[in-house]
Amino acid sequence: MDKKVETALNAYCEKIEASLTRSTAEKPELQGIVLEAMEYSLLAGGKRLRPVLMLEFCRMCGGDPDKYIDIACTIEMIHTCSLIHDDLPCMDNDDFRRGRPSCHKAFPENIALLAGDALECLPFEVISDAALEGVIDPRTAVMLCSVLAKSIGTNGMIGGQVIDLQSEGKEISLDTLNTLQAYKTGALIEAACVMGVILSGNTKMIPYAAAYASALGRAFQIIDDILDVTGTFEELGKPIGSDDEQNKTTYVSLLGLDRSYIEAQKLTEEALAILDSFDDSEFLKELTKQLLSRRN
What we know:
By secondary structure, this protein is an all-alpha fold. The chain has one domain (about 5-290): Orthogonal Bundle (Farnesyl Diphosphate Synthase). It is built from 15 helices and 2 strands. Strands 1-2 form a two-stranded antiparallel sheet. A hairpin with a 2-residue loop joins strand 1 and strand 2 (about 100).
């Protein structure tokens, strides 16, 4: 990765980590265990891709990302909620996440469930407080909450998970798989990009941000499917081959490894072309290219 880009990415991630740490720092005695579980999963590492996307789209569209670090972290809270819930025995039943026991293995299962629930509520508190404190105006807060809520709901992350669960053990079409992943993975990525544009106030760029996110989100999921076959536990921090064990249709099972990677390359090129519509997009272009060759 280009040194300048790596420095900028690290600067974003340091601010994001500091904000996430503050979000669960206060632990009341009676209900502190759920905050410990939230913190366990929230601070377990990860690429922090979604908050970085929000902040970078804000910057490219003329906003000041440093004003909105806490708001950017709302998308990471939702993403972490989805990981906690996905790992539960009633969902994908995974015992490891990011190289250590899943939340429901480190804490009682009912506490892990509630930690995920709490991380789904906290973002709306953060956005509302930002409006009450004058960081953003009320209309902006409503727009952010609307985008975020829709990305979580039945036409977003939850809807994608439902399709995923009901598709286990069945052969599904490429169109159905595209819909599943557009909801389950793509919706939060799109929300991150669009929310960044909303924070900048330059809302005419929303369609371009959404189009970029659509291409990136699908490419991201295809690489995830490839890594589930070719990666290692050490690289991914979780068992490999779980999709095959659960009889899930993936891009690899439908297209094969080679065609899957070609499709991810094509989608990455589409995403890069859309970024030409934005000023000073070199950082995000480089990051987009790096996501195609990632190993975790």
